[in-house]
Amino acid sequence: MQARVLLVSSEAVPLVKTGGLADVITALAVSLRKLDIDASILMPGYGVAVAHAEADATTAPLQPLALPRDLPGGPARLLRGVMPGTDVPVLLLDTGRFHQRSANPYIDQSGNEFSDNAICFADLAHAAVAICAGETAVPAPHVVHANDWHAGLIPFLLKTAGLNHVASMLTIHNLAFQGNYDWALAGQLGLDRDAQAMSSLEYWGKISFLKAGLQHADCVTTVSKTYAQEILTPRFGYGMEGVLNERRAALRAIPNGIDSKVWNPEADPLLRHSFNVGDMRGKTLSKCDLQDMFGLLPVDPFAPIVGIGSRMSHQKMADVVLQTLPTVLDRHERMQLVVLGCGERSYEEGFLDLACRYPGRVGVHIGYDEERAHALHAGCDMLLHPSRFEPFGLTPLYAMRYGTIPIASRVGGLTDTIADVGMHGPAGRGASGVLFDGETARDMEAAIERAFALHQDAGAWRAMQRNAMHTDFDWQTAAAAYVDAYAAIAATEAKPLFARKAPDARVALEQAA
Ligand code: ADP
After folding, report:
1. What are phi and psi of 492, to 5 degrees?
2. Is the shortest distance between the CB of 393 and ligand 1 below 6 Å?
């Protein structure tokens, strides 16, 4: 028998993606299956996700499965299929509410959070528990792996249902999102209002989905070593540092990987030119393609191009970026800027204004666009990726694969994955980017200036590009660490199923404490 793991997430590529979580879930499931773990994914059946899965000609049609219990939001069913482009079984939770949601599954067209998010994601948790209880045609997993607040109720519901044979893990991909709702909703969400619920779920007078998971999961993980330390402090704990400190013994860091097949300059179907660390001619051509794509003039491969590709949010310091860039653009007359992103409307408008102010030098695309993201990583010289906090930070790693040097904040996973040129001395000795402290325009400007100074020195720049392109964050290492962690929490009878898959358990799990 194989060990079975059910990954529960609100998003997964290619069906729906708003951020790094979607990349991580599918890549992890694929990698676990390579380690002979029977990993599958349970996610909401958003209209777009169902349509995408149905349109995939390579897989069989979605198979409806009954869900015998009603969920808080009403009756529902599962649609069983295969994640397009992979061999990972996927279960889409088909409810009327989820079905109505499209590309951004969390907010409506005016940018407000959907008013029934609590019910929708309580539905997801109750459906997961029904599967764990063996109520559906899907075999119950040995471990349920809940991701972020959307799946946070699962560990709590498993415990209260007495389903102790299914172990639970909660992974924090972003602690700032917590799913905190009015306590008055408890009954509607299928939550008892007893004392246990109170101490498990209550967060400043509200119900917290995330806290429910943090309190009750058998193991809590997060996605980088530094973030695992940071979230124990008030600055990064977003009010959860107390709970996390209490659960310190159960907290582990398992750094993410990246999909080096999808992000590969040697064979990227979304690019016209390929390149590698030994032959960068394709990067020069990709710079021109990018200039063309974003209307930059002149189309000159020697113009330094800075790129930004991220959610436009306070977390990603969009406010400080908008303050800083005019000074930098005025100082460096040949510099060009490419911006790809979407998010808070005021920031989107700020970037569009910048493009009007610097015609031909600043190209902005507001939206979510995979093809442009690949073009940006391939064609830029530098990626500006500031963050007030960063659990892992996939984007700079993608850029590095394409020889694009990140300028990033020294926080969270960025600290662990980018080797700062300042710390590593001359660029030849392992440096792969520029890290900076602080959240002011002056801090950011100084970091950009450091990068520009290095860019003047062709030898140093080339050495940094080589280091960046050789940086290896393979998913197999991360997946093996997850298998170790699953083995540690699985019920006694199931342990050997996991232990066999990671016989030497050499992948050290970093204890946060
Ligand atoms: P976060 O999860 O906090 O948004 P990450 O850098 O870890 O940050 O992951 C972001 C993911 O979303 C990356 O895969 C990045 O390429 C992608 N992404 C963000 N904004 C866009 C966009 N506008 N178009 C295409 N991809 C985007």
Report:
1. -50, -45
2. yes
* Per-position DSSP letters for 388-404, written without gaps between them: S--SS-HHHHHHHHTTP
Best probe residue, ligand 1, of 310, 401, 402 (max atoms within 8 Å of C-beta): 310
pLDDT in tens, 112-158: 889 999 999 999 999 999 999 999 999 999 999 999 999 999 999 99
3-state SS assignment for residue 323: helix
C-alpha 322 – ligand 1 centre gap (Å):
19
Mutate to test the pocket of ligand 1, among 104, 313, 351, 395 (most ligand atoms within 8 A of CB): 395
Domain-wise residue ranges, the chain:
4-250, 281-469
CATH number for the domain formed by residue range(s) 4-250: 3.40.50.2000
pLDDT tens digit sequence for 466-481: 999 999 898 999 999 9
pLDDT band at 463 (very low <50, low <70, confident <90, very high): very high
For residue 14 and ligand 1, the question of a CB distance below 6 A is answered with: no
Hey, what are 419's tokens? 């080797």
Q: Beta partners for 206?
A: 182, 203
- Closest Cα partner for 483 from 495, 496, 501? 501
Nearest to 424 by CA among 396, 463, 377, 385: 463
DSSP letter, residue 386: -
Q: Is the CB of 368 under 6 A from ligand 1?
A: yes
* CATH entry 3.40.50.2000 includes domain 281-469: yes
Gap from CA of 392 to ligand 1 centroid (Å): 12
Residue with tokens 């992890």: 28
SS3 13: coil
Asked whether 90 and 53 are in contact (CB, 8 A), the reply is yes
Longest dimension (CA), the chain: 67
**311: CA distance to ligand 1 center in Å?**
6
Give me the pLDDT at residue 200, please.
82
Residue of 314, 371, 394 to test ligand 1 pocket, by largest number of atoms within 8 Å of CB: 394
Instruction: Specify the pTM.
Output: 0.94
